[in-house]
């Protein structure tokens, strides 16, 4: 049996993950419009990941015999001044999610909800990875600055990330 306050928090988190997905898709559209297709496809892979995150919480409720109650998704930010501004926005968003996950973990601990604690451990690791990944792009964008050919090369590099296996591909790349 799942406690009411925990159920509410999970429902809120489903909304947060889908809201993140929507934000990444809107960013992807902006990059597409600005002829940076590599960034656009990287962000689309991120969109897919956020949907999967939402579904992990959704399935957790179903497994525990609770009904997921889907909430409104707000209109995301659709205009950005630059690629750097877009990724700084993405980092803020990830930091916000990290805070929420940590807060949920505290709640799960207080309420002795072991299954949720276990699920959240996966998310705690995932948030470290996500923040690192976005920060890495920010660092590269700062390095490139106003240099158009640098941005062109970075866009190509970003385009190498493959769909849902993006992270795995990235990791095996690192091991070479
Ligand atoms: Fe997420
Ligand atoms: Fe995320």
Automatic annotation (TrEMBL):
InterPro entries in alphabetical order: Ferritin, Ferritin-like, Ferritin-like_diiron, Ferritin-like_SF, Ferritin_DPS_dom, Ferritin_prok
Family matches, as PROSITE patterns: FERRITIN_LIKE (PS50905)
Domain of life: Bacteria
Family: Belongs to the ferritin family. Prokaryotic subfamily.
Start and end residues of each Ferritin-like diiron domain: 1-145
Location of this chain's protein in the cell: Cytoplasm
Region (Disordered): 154-176
UniProt feature, compositional bias: Basic and acidic residues: 167-176
Key words of the record: Cytoplasm, Iron, Iron storage, Metal-binding, Oxidoreductase
GO biological process, one term: iron ion transport
Protein name, entry field: Ferritin
EC number from the UniProt entry: 1.16.3.2
GO molecular function term, any single one: ferrous iron binding
């Amino acid at each position: 049996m799942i406690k009411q306050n925990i159920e509410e928090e999970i429902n809120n988190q489903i909304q947060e993950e889908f809201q993140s997905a929507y934000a990444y898709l809107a960013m992807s559209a902006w990059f597409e419009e600005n002829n940076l297709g590599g960034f656009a496809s990287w962000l689309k892979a991120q969109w897919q990941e956020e949907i999967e995150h939402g579904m992990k919480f959704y399935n957790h409720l179903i497994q525990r015999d609770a009904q997921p109650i889907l909430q409104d998704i707000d209109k995301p930010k659709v205009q950005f001044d630059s690629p750097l501004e877009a990724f700084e926005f993405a980092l803020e968003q990830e930091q916000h999610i990290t805070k929420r996950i940590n807060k949920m973990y505290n709640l799960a601990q207080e309420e002795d909800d072991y299954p949720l604690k276990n699920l959240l451990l996966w998310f705690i690791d995932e948030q470290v990875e996500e923040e690192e990944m976005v920060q890495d792009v920010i660092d590269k964008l700062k390095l490139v600055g106003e240099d158009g050919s640098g941005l062109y090369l970075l866009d190509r590099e970003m385009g190498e990330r493959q769909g849902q296996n993006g992270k795995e591909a990235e990791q095996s790349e690192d091991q070479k």
